[in-house]
Amino acid sequence: MLEEGWEWEPSRTRKTKKGKKNVGPFDVSASLMKMEKVYETLAKADAKAMQSDEVTSDDRAMLEYIVAARAPASAKAVADWVPIAQMCVVRPLADANRSEGVASDDVLKAIVSNYCRELSHSATLGAPVFKTVPRTAVEYSVESQASFNKHVYDIVIEGKNDDDKNDNVMTKLEARKVLNLEGEDASDKSAIKKSYRSLTFQLHPDRFVGQERTDEEISESSNEFARVKLAYEVMQSGIRSSDGKGMSWYESLGGRERTEFSGSIPLMSRDLAQTLLERRSVESAVVPLNPEIVQSFTARHQAAQVQV
Asked: Does the predicted TM-score (pTM) go above 0.85?
């Protein structure tokens, strides 16, 4: 017999106080499964709207982003950014037109804040090492899917570039070899810069003006010049130091052309995030990335940590 003031809740195996809803523990796996259906529904609605010639005041626009995560520098395999999830943002068309098709920083911040539990779980699905990191210590960043595909996925995963080789990705160990750095010079900033200037002077195309050279020689020196520049960028950025400062290998991909990467996003409370999204009439969803993609980045980060 139930105690007075309690009632049985059929959907659960425990009693709840009258007048108070017992929601129980949050099921993040179930939430992610629901998100997949929501994402699919939003994507289908967007595709249908794109095919229509009619534009109404109720029309909405969808954008897709990639969410990356990183942990403190002590967690080496994930101390650099690791892409973990895909995120969609659906807004009124009028709002999208006013912002020239780009979601505002506060909207992106609100969505990431609202789904931080799902994002944290997505991270652990692809990189189990995230399980050892407190959820509150994990940082998140966002980048449009188009930017990610061009500057990260196509280069790192597909290995696409001008000569069909994955030459735009370099570990610190490889960078040291390219710059002829050994011993103490391998970490001395002045020595790194000196070596870089010397090599770029020797290989700069202007030095060969007026000289008769074969196409093979021109191509070879051009590739060497490019690798020296890449090596210098890698040594200048490197993996985050123990104090958390400095650009990462992941951030350095794409060079100056990669302008849409947000960097670490400061989170807000979930209540505030939900209020902001409701006020802006924003719909959204997140889904985990393929674990193989996530794992490929953790492996590369470990390789980039290799010391001479």
From this structure: no
